[in-house]
Design a protein that fits this description.
Elements: E1 13-14, E2 18-22, H1 28-36, H2 38-41, H3 50-67, E3 72-78, E4 84-92, E5 99-105, H4 114-129, E6 134-139, H5 144-152, E7 156-162, E8 172-179, H6 180-186, E9 193-194
Antiparallel strand pairs: 1-2, 1-9, 2-3, 3-4, 4-5, 6-8, 7-8
Helix pairs in contact: 1-3
Length: 199
């Protein structure tokens, strides 16, 4: 742990410009706003209602922290000032054993490299701390921007898959993989600090 880490923060992972912390019930408004934006939600299963976001926060986010310690969906904030910019995740693909990396950013924060920056930090955490043998990712086949992020992070496109869970609506999804050995050979130098016990 970096000895200069602020003691009043709940962040557990910090990259050069960003920090991750657990969602809390107080973050519902931000989560709902994120999924209420059609441009953001376009490739995330569509706009979610208030009730749908409440269920997501309760079951998919908060309960998951206890069910699978060290994995989850986290609030992505600016390292300086703490403004919420989106979310990053390292969790199970729904209905699957595979662990995925993913992200969603509010529109004002698109185009700044934030998705790539924190995803690289999560890959580092997943492989070096969690000891994962493989990390995957899925995107809509039309979401070229997200696919470029995954390629920049070192994941490899492995065709498309149709996943059984109803949340994926039976649509083919672009499938990406990165094995621990490939990551170890090619991972770029990373500026990141973590307190994994708070993940």
């Amino acid at each position: 742990m970096n000895t200069a880490w602020p003691q009043d923060t709940h962040a557990w992972l910090r990259s050069a410009r960003l920090a991750l912390r657990r969602f809390t019930p107080a973050d519902f408004g931000f989560l709902h706003g994120l999924y209420a934006d059609p441009a953001v939600a376009r490739y995330l299963g569509g706009v979610k209602s208030r009730d749908e976001c409440e269920i997501m926060l309760r079951e998919r986010v908060l309960a998951y922290y206890d069910e699978y310690p060290g994995l989850g969906i986290w609030l992505t904030c600016m390292r300086d000032g703490g403004a919420a910019v989106g979310l990053h995740l390292l969790n199970h693909i729904r209905g699957e054993a595979h662990i995925q990396v993913g992200y969603a950013l509010a529109r004002p924060y698109w185009g700044h490299g934030y998705a790539t920056e924190m995803s690289r930090a999560l890959l580092h955490y997943g492989f070096s701390v969690r000891g994962l043998r493989q990390i995957t990712a899925i995107t809509d086949p039309d979401n070229s921007a997200s696919q470029q992020v995954l390629l920049k992070c070192g994941l490899h496109r492995r065709g498309e898959r149709v996943l059984a869970h109803p949340s994926y609506a039976g649509k083919p999804l672009a499938w990406f993989e990165l094995d621990a050995a490939d990551w170890a050979r090619a991972a770029p130098p990373l500026r990141a600090e973590m307190r994994s016990e708070l993940a």
